[in-house]
Automatic annotation (TrEMBL):
Residues 61-222 form the DJ-1/PfpI domain. Keywords: Membrane, Transmembrane, Transmembrane helix. PANTHER family: ARAC-FAMILY TRANSCRIPTIONAL REGULATOR, HTH-TYPE TRANSCRIPTIONAL REGULATOR RV1931C. This is DJ-1/PfpI domain-containing protein. InterPro entries: Class_I_gatase-like, DJ-1/PfpI, INH-QAR.
């Protein structure tokens, strides 16, 4: 009868859907967990963090680290830009002194706890930068919310990067204000925080003492705007030129054509769901490494769902970045697991990383290092990893990486396969196996039903 055929079709289709979706959910959970986890923290004890002497004549900038995970580029680009000017005291601050995780698995030790900075300043910092900090554990996140609320007075400029705007909204600091945020989350935030006017067509939005930015690299525009407001646009322009930042015009006029979710963005979920054999990439840490150059590796490869980046250093001691961050590697050159590629980030890596690189090259079974930025010192550091992602994976994945990063320069040169072959093949294989299973179930249990 017709209803029996319809029932059999429904059961078989449901079974195929459950198998395909279930396999994708497992893959997504595993890959997302590698990207946004704090479970691989290196274990100390660590020496006391070196902090530059505080200059009471300079404004103080506090860049916030969450207890668990903080978005890597949001944090690093802001820290480096303020530090480059040498006009501010710039500190990484956190609820406690423990190792903190940046997305993708970069580990850092804060300069001060919230309480220590409050004691040092005897009040609020001039500026607080709020990167995107996921709400993973309410108990662990609560001190950050309370600290932001405590220092939200009009004498402090609050700067949110990407979905750091959600952290401000969660603290009740955006009620009745206009704000920008990440294009992929703005619909959700409009529903959850309807008392905020969410702006889609600006790279950053100024609302009183709060400056909110759109997607990740939009934070550069917001920070440069704040720098220009405090110490002059000539200094902001100088910092942008030193970093070879190609779209300074957005600092002067943040208007943009808004991006929204499109069908090509499905490559993001395809990679996370069905890229079951992620590429293992090493990131060599060395003293003097540029913060944004290092972050570009993690926020391109790990955030694409195609790779897992592991930090490696030449010794077990912490590494000090160019502008005074204390970084902790997960592995040393002698005990690193087998890697598919070793990346050395930074425009001066050939010189500054020479000792660490020589130690790595003593292990012939490991891949030779790729000096990611040394061949293009006059380009902005985000471009080389996006182009390398296209070569290693495909152009569609790399194009989405640029979109996710809100990178709007037209200087990218993407070469590679047109689309992600491996996860697409895995999806087809899972679908085929699910269909075979459904046919077996139909013939074994459903077809004989009378």
């Amino acid at each position: 009868m017709l209803w029996k055929k319809g029932f059999r079709f429904f059961v078989c289709s449901f079974l195929v859907g459950v198998c395909v979706a279930g396999a994708g959910m497992v893959g997504t959970y595993m890959n997302m967990n590698e990207w946004m986890t704090d479970s691989h923290k290196p274990v100390g004890p660590w020496p006391k963090v070196q902090v530059a002497e505080h200059d009471p004549h300079k404004p103080t900038v506090a860049v916030v680290l969450g207890s668990q995970v903080t978005e890597v580029m949001d944090f690093m680009e802001s820290y480096e830009l303020f530090a480059r000017t040498q006009a501010f005291n710039v500190y990484a601050v956190a609820p406690d002194h423990g190792v903190k995780t940046l997305s993708g698995g970069l580990h850092i030790l804060p300069h001060y706890t919230y309480e220590e900075l409050d004691t040092l300043l005897g009040g609020s910092p001039a500026m607080i930068v709020v990167p995107a900090i996921p709400f993973m554990d309410e108990t662990k996140y609560r001190p950050t919310r309370q600290w932001l609320q405590r220092h939200a007075g009009r004498d402090t400029t609050l700067i949110s990067i990407c979905t750091g705007a959600e952290n401000l909204a969660d603290a009740g600091l955006l009620k009745g204000r206009s704000a920008a945020t990440f294009w992929a989350d703005i619909d959700r935030l409009e529903r959850e925080y309807a008392d905020t006017h969410w702006i889609r067509n600006q790279r950053y939005v100024v609302s009183g003492n709060i400056v909110t930015s759109a997607g990740i690299t939009s934070g550069i525009d917001a920070v440069l705007y704040v720098i220009g407001r405090h110490i002059g646009e000539d200094q902001a322009l100088l910092a942008a030129r030193e970093m070879n930042y190609p779209t300074y015009h957005f600092v002067r006029d943040p208007a943009m054509i808004p991006w929204s979710v499109g069908w090509k963005d499905a490559v993001f979920m395809l990679n996370f769901a069905y890229q079951w054999k992620q590429r293992q990439i090493g990131a060599l840490l060395y003293d003097g490494i540029e913060e944004t150059a290092l972050a570009s590796v993690f926020d391109t490869f790990d955030a694409s769902g195609t790779a897992n980046t592991l930090t490696v250093s030449g010794s077990g001691r912490p590494v000090r970045s160019r502008h005074g961050l204390t970084l902790v590697a997960r592995y040393q050159t002698g005990n690193a697991p087998p890697l598919n590629q070793m990346i050395i980030a930074g425009t001066e890596a050939h010189v500054l990383a020479a000792e660490a690189a020589s130690g790595w090259e003593d292990h012939p079974k490991q891949p030779k290092p790729l000096y990611l930025h040394s061949g293009s010192p006059a380009r902005y550091v985000m471009e080389a990893p996006i182009e390398q992602l296209a070569l290693l994976e495909d152009k569609t994945t790399a194009a989405f990486a640029a979109k996710r990063l809100e990178y709007r320069a037209d200087s990218l040169r993407l070469k590679g396969k047109p689309f992600p072959v491996e996860p697409a093949a895995m999806l087809l294989a899972v679908t085929a196996c699910s269909v075979i299973l459904a046919v077996y179930v139909d013939r074994r249990w459903l077809a004989p039903v009378r």
